[in-house]
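Hi R.,

As promised, here are both runs. First protein below:
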Amino acid sequence: MNSQGKKPLLGCIADDFTGATDLANNLVRAGMRVVQTIGIPTHTDIGSAIALETADAIVVALKSRTAPIDEAVEQSLSAANWLQSLGVAQLYFKVCSTFDSTDRGNIGPVAEELAEVLQAGIVPVCPAFPETNRTVYKAHLYVGDVLLSDSSMRHHPLTPMTDSNLIHVLQRQSKGKVGHVDHAVVRGGSDTIRERLEALRTDGTRFAIVDAIANDDLMTMGRAFASMPLVVAGSGVAIGLPQNFGISPSESAAQLPRAQGPRAIVSGSCSAASNAQVVDFIKRGGEAFPVDPLRIAAGNDIVGEALHWAGSRLSESPVLFYATAAPEAVKSVQAQLGVEHAGELVERTLSAIALGLVERGVRQLIVAGGETSGACVQALEVQQMRIGPQIDPGVPWCYALSPAAGKDGLMLALKSGNFGTVDFFTKAFGMLP
């Protein structure tokens, strides 16, 4: 429970929409009642006001991961100012567990500006999330048993990650010095971590990459970060922070209203996990509509075709709309259309399909892919969501209000491309009545 009763304890800024629900999911699992806003709310309706008043944590979801640096910084600072106005005790800048970024940013530039505003002497940085096989050891990021640079993220279409040394990655983006808290220090306990961070601060270090290979490490560092004004991390560190506010796990934190109706999936992610999930859904007999970027670019009315195809298919049996494709196919399309243009075409089309589906009665919707989730949520004009039970690590069901859904609301799951078991789509709907 929020012991203060009137203001949230933790304020979070996420650089994409699926990352925001990933973070919120871990906070809920640790016992916090969480409201996720889509950007900074432009107005407050009755439902939003009640939700904010009863929330232990507020997560602001931005679409800033691949935005121009100045835009990403501006959005993040605005979110920080709004959260501070609510009285939060600590700020959490949530980045991807695979540290998705380019050599120019946006993690470093945003984190530095936030640190300046908060007057943070040193900022711990840890993208580790062992439950999803993301670990940091000797400042190197691993995906499962391989270095990040040897994983499928090496071929990411927007933020290819070819360097696993997070000190090097963050230093290229930052003006301040980047240091390291070794795993041996982490295993020494919270006091040892605090001592190491203070030594680095005294030495003029601005950021410290912190090793973590297990959940116990995250709980230990969570206690060490209790008095720090700013934490930069993936969603994993979130499991260690609620304890600092006297909060413990509780099933009531994940309780949601229910919205019943037809089911659908919209997938724009091209990650290996999403590819496997699409294949699994189709193999199980699920009906699916492919979205071809080249046909969109040629002027075909793909949205109209998709919604016409949906027609009488909308029911308790989910239908899938996907632009998910293998890396070779994605590169071929990007070569013909350009990386940014191809992405914009797909996002615009899938978000229009999602809106049309909800207008036609869909009330249980899964969206796969960070950029796709951002576009769909914006098209649906969702301003805030209540975070519910976990489907798979990093992915919860949420209850959202959307003008397209009316007073009924909408059950919504925003899945990061790399997350979820191969049967994720089937399993997710199996959790709902």
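And here is the second one, sequence first, then its structure tokens:
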Amino acid sequence: MDPKFRGTYIEVSFSVPGALITNQATNDTTVEEWFVKYVVPFIDEFTINYIVVGDKVIPGLNDNILPVMKSLQNLLNSRYLGQVKITTMVGLAALGVQTPPSSGAFDPNVLENMKGILQFLWGQGSPLMLSLYPHYAYAYTRYTNNINVGDVAIAIGETGWPTQGNYGAGPSLALTYNLNFNNPITSGKGTPMKPNVYIEGFIRSLFNENEKPEGESQFYGMFHVDSTPIYPYVFN
């Protein structure tokens, strides 16, 4: 964590790496060790809003997500950190039916696991995070809870548009996309299905990431790695 942000109480989130989840699902001690090492040192210096258990690891690790979520929730409760929400990030790979968006349904292979996860999220008042990249594929930004687990909120955990890369990438398109994403998020108008509902959303990313694999994944930032802007400011 960059030292210059310490003590500013900006909102930050932490993510449990997918490589740790299988072991953590059957070993509460490893969950606590991760929590103590990576989260506890920052509790008094930042506002921690989310702990994300896995980034697009469903399908794949779907049997393991819920046990880790429950272990982390117990740790938060024991430390009176109920304001921190537990969630997971899912992408389009978790869907068996993708189009039209209003008919979207989870892949049958992950359905039972998703029921348990959504029941947990609903009980804790936590949103399900979605990863949406329309530059890669058509973006399905509406979600219908079609497995009857209450009214689970949605947060757009990551979205954006590359400034360099394959066809369609560029600074002007990235600016347009992020403005069009930011405006309805900040307006509070919600969606046609759920008007006047606040939707939380996160743009990837503030800076280009030169340590990512070569290609467009390095170029989702609004600033170069030297902090110079790539295109005009997006946020009001």
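A quick note on the second one: The longest helix spans residues 62-78. Let me know what you think.

Best,
J.
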